[in-house]
Design a protein that fits this description.
It is built from six helices and five strands; from the N terminus they run H-E-E-H-E-E-E-H-H-H-H. By secondary structure, the chain is an alpha+beta fold.
């Protein structure tokens, strides 16, 4: 990834738009919020930085109380051979369900929420967090962007490049 000199929003601009097919409405607090598929966010990080463990990574520490689990996440990513760190960002989840049984998914839920929060600070799905998905016209624009002609041409160009790279390897 190449950084444009003097541009403070270079990461934000890479991440700010969200493909609507990876979102869904979620009623909470008497209104409807938009949730983002956490794997979509991991995919966004991978597209920009490369595979997890190579171009980016995360570190998580768990802290437990009698009733809750806290996940503290640090995001690490590489740009031009320099490693950057962001965090910690924390989230909490109840260890027990309403019926009183242990929620064995609680640590994962806390981790996922903390990662989502950390990714959002880098700009991942910024449009959702800025409330732009509350506007139907904006969502339609994003659908066109990700599913329209431009997206199809991008996929076609990538397939052509992959085929070209494979042909070059086979010719050697």
């Amino acid at each position: 990834m190449k950084i444009e000199e003097g541009k403070n929003t270079y990461l934000w601009d890479q991440f700010k738009h969200t493909d609507p097919k990876y979102t869904k409405p979620f009623p909470k607090f008497g209104k409807t919020l938009t949730t983002i598929d956490p794997m979509y966010q991991v995919m966004c990080m991978t597209r920009v930085f490369g595979p997890v463990g190579s171009g980016w990574s995360y570190d998580v520490k768990y802290h437990y109380t009698d009733a809750n689990v806290f996940a503290e996440v640090k995001i690490v990513y590489r740009i031009e051979d320099i490693w950057y760190r962001y965090g910690p960002v924390s989230s909490v989840c109840a260890l027990y369900k309403k019926a009183g049984s242990l929620d064995d998914e609680a640590p994962k839920k806390a981790l996922t929420d903390a990662m989502t929060k950390a990714f959002s600070h880098l700009g991942v799905s910024a449009d959702v967090f800025l409330g732009l998905f509350d506007n139907n016209k904006y969502v339609q624009t994003m659908k066109e962007k990700f599913n329209g002609k431009a997206a199809a041409e991008g996929v076609k160009a990538k397939v052509v490049q992959i085929n070209k790279n494979n042909k070059e390897k086979n010719d050697k």
